[in-house]
From TrEMBL:
Sequence segments annotated as region (Disordered): 1-72
Main location: nucleus
Family: Belongs to the pinin family.
Organism of provenance: Funneliformis mosseae
Protein name: 11195_t:CDS:1
Composition skew (Polar residues), residue ranges: 1-18
Lineage: Eukaryota, Fungi, Fungi incertae sedis, Mucoromycota, Glomeromycotina
UniProt-listed GO biological process terms: mRNA processing; RNA splicing
Domain of life: Eukaryota
Name of a matching Pfam family: Pinin_SDK_memA
Coiled coil: 96-135
Intracellular or extracellular location(s): Nucleus
Basic and acidic residues: bias regions: 37-64
Length: 135
């Protein structure tokens, strides 16, 4: 019987397809090779100082020439459009506030009406109760 178990152990050790796992996590030996090939495919990052130096040297935008009449007229038109938009927004917001005032007035009227109706019902119930007591 001991020879059978030793034969089984020998076959397990000699078999290259079977692996002995001592823990529940198996780490393949090819994982490091895959990682290195993946890292080689990605571009490397630049240092931030190199990037900022590269931008300032390469792409400086020239100032607009505001001395020409066309540029001045364009600026005035854009400013006029901006002011028009602002005044339109201001008038719309005032109109909204007027509408809100109207809504508040309507709500107040409804509240007063409900209060009067409630008071009338309370008085009516009191009268009916008194009439029942008298009978």
């Amino acid at each position: 019987m001991t020879t059978e178990t030793s034969d089984q152990l020998d076959t397990n050790i000699d078999a290259p397809s079977q692996t002995v796992v001592t823990s529940s996590i198996v780490v393949p030996s090819t994982s490091t090779a895959k990682r290195s090939s993946r890292n080689d495919a990605l571009p490397k990052r630049r240092a931030s100082s190199d990037f900022s130096r590269h931008n300032t040297e390469e792409a400086k935008r020239p100032r607009l020439d505001m001395t020409s009449n066309e540029a001045k007229k364009r600026g005035q038109r854009l400013f006029g459009v901006l002011l028009g938009t602002l005044t339109k927004f201001k008038t719309e917001s005032q109109n909204k506030s007027e509408a809100e005032i109207k809504r508040e007035q309507i709500d107040q009227k409804l509240q007063e009406k409900l209060k009067k109706d409630h008071e009338e019902l309370v008085e009516k119930m009191k009268r009916e109760e008194q009439e029942r007591r008298e009978k």
